[in-house]
Please model this.
Amino acid sequence: MFNNPQTLWIEILVVALVVTFLAVVLGRYIYKKVHHLPTGECECCHKSTKQLLKEYHEQFEK
Amino acid sequence: MKRFALAGNPNCGKTTLFNNLTGSTAHVGNWPGVTVEKKDGVYKKLSEPIAIIDLPGIYSLSPYTSEEVISRNYILDEKPDCVINIVDATNLERNLYLTTQLLEIDVPVVVAINMMDVLEKAGDKLDEKLLADKLGVPVVKISALEESNLKELMEVAYKASQSQRTGLSIIYNKDLKHLIGDLQIAFKHKQVENPLFHAIKLVENDEIEVQMHPDLLPMVEDFKKTLNDETFGDDIEAIIADERYNYIATNFNKAITHREVKDDNKVKENKSDRIDKVLTHKVFGLLIFAVILFFVFHLTFAEDLFFLGAFGVPFSNSLEGTIYEGLFWSEKGINSPGVILFNFFDMSFAAIIEAVKGGMEAGLGEGHWLTGFVGDGVLTGLFAILGFLPQILVLFLFFSIMEDTGYMARVAFILDRIFRKFGLSGRAFIPMIMGFGCSVPAMINTRTLADENEKISTIRVIPFFSCGAKLPILVAIAGGVAEAFGFAHVDLITYSMYVLGILTAIVAVLILRNTTLKGEAAPFIMELPQYHWPQFKSLMIHLWDKAKHFVKKAFTIILASTIVIWFLSNFGWNWHMVEDMQDSILASIGQLLQPLFTPLGFGSQLTAIGWVFAVAAITGLIAKENVIATFITLGAVAVAYINSGAVDPAIIEAIEADEEGITAVNQMIQATGITWQGCISFITFNMLTIPCFAACATAKGELKKGTFKYTLAFWIIASFLGAGFTYAFLSCFSLSSLAWALPVTLVLVIALVSTFITISRLKKKNIVGA
Model:
């Protein structure tokens, strides 16, 4: 691991991407739980309603 | 933005109308009580957008259930611009009972007579003008299912919302009318909105009104003393209900003209009634359900469709050697539709993985850790889970058809007879059936249960109704068992596991309702909906919902878990990559946990890498699909163990002779030396154990404070006892594992007895309240 200079940048990139992905997934989950926001299937319904309202506000200003 | 609320009886088509008006994909079921919370959407086909609010189905505006409280509070407090009251045309009398209450509120009301298509097909006619005259509000005939007249309904509702409406009472009892009038003046004086509605509710002795306006209660109490109705005595609520029904019978029965029946004495019987005679039969009903369920599993998982191969029907080998080999049939027989789709995805994913791995090896060189990480870890784990999606969709297509036609409502009715004997009503069975889809909405649906003990019991047994996420475990392990031990029928194993889940639920309910959660089953009154052909759109909405959640889960939590598992299985405690996975962090954690599962057949009795089963059981707690993702990610450890020479050469030959894509489970079975009894026990454990994090969080939210810890303990005990007994029972059929069966049975019996003693002692001390 990390011992081939030719592939070093790819390895670093992959590790950075993976760490970012894990941080986002876990961080998002923890954030939602701490702030009592919906997760899983409940989140999906919540999102679709939000999207409909967003579309409405774009069309008709508050 | 104007807001229109949809209100009506359960299963009158509110959510179907809501979906068609707003383009939403809210879950629709052909049974009462699917919606337990209000939902919002936007209708955009009028001159201005309208917010549509789908309220839970209710029979009245009295606060008997949580749905009634939600709907009542919304209409009174949020003051929608119009209430669209959906009325089932096939049950006009019962549905109009709610209408008479809605009319008492100072809000524009439009009555939408739904299911007109069903009414007209039966040969009946409805005069909507007469209805509108009598009700004093607009009436529109619609069919939410066929999307007919919806625009007209919205236009009428929009017009109605532009003017004010004052509540109107249909109570004509002279004395009562006088009392209501006095109370109405008193409410007006107190500047309470909707004075007529509050006045009538207070007369009805409504719980909320009594609490909110105790100062006005003496007026009602004084009136009661003078009241002595011939039939109802001083029960004002009953008198008012009678008034409402009388009004409906006198005024609205004329609006409907029934098809002429030649023999007047003969009760009119429609097609649904005739089908129900068979499907809800006392004896055959249950048998038919078992047969239907079996065929659903057979069409989804069978590799020998209709057992043709077993009967010796020969199959052409014209596709041998081509890429289609094994896709439609194998030497066992014709594949079921579910298996064909599974094979197709499996082959496609295998080709992608090979191509990616080949490209990476060419670029990075042989044996590079990145190739292992991306190819064997991330891609293989992810695709292995996604590969189950077609079979999950096929299974849910059948479930959706059963639900959409109205058959699932009959299943609740059939099983009510059985569950009632154990202390649960058929109403509790509705969330249980929903548990076949996902435990989260199923647990939310238990809000409809008024009895707290019944609600707790139901939440505890919902995870036993195997959800979609558990399917990969079932299919992969059952497939592994079939390959490794030469058992031809994967469908039989999966079907048995579903039945086992239901049986465990019955046993658990029996124990709970007779020990810590005693109580009488509430009466179960459910209107059986009319049978109708499933709607393509509705089926697709169900499947799309399922697929969307599954794929999203695969690319977030499962992918993250796969990466973590790969890391833990490839790194040691010194944070360096290990040559042998046996030295990894995961191996040491797994070895620590392994003895716990020994009584269940997948613990210390396995070979040195037997810890993988312990690890898989634990990772499954995050998301059930992780069990298989773990096997896939740890596949390399099994291969290394096999290659080290620790496995019998004959077994290695058997694996290598297998078709392409030897399942990781098969590798694990061969490498760990687990018996088929141990495999079945492993499935049982996963079926019964603590559900995923999301379901646990929902259960915690739905249960009374302080009871969740007992629920967790219940799930752990149930899974250990269930899997242990399964292993012990199955071991009796094999001489090689009989030695394990006897001590394991003894240990489990002791565990069971001590659990009972502990519970009864805690109960005596009043520690276990739930």
Remarks:
- The interface with chain A takes residues 1, 22, 24-26, 39-42, 48-49, 364-365, 368-370, 373-374, 438, 440-441, 545, 548-549, 552, 556-557, 559-560, 563-564, 577, 694, 697 of chain B (CB under 8 Å).
- Chain B is about 60% helix and 5% strand.
- Residues 654-662 of chain B have pLDDT under 50 and may be disordered.
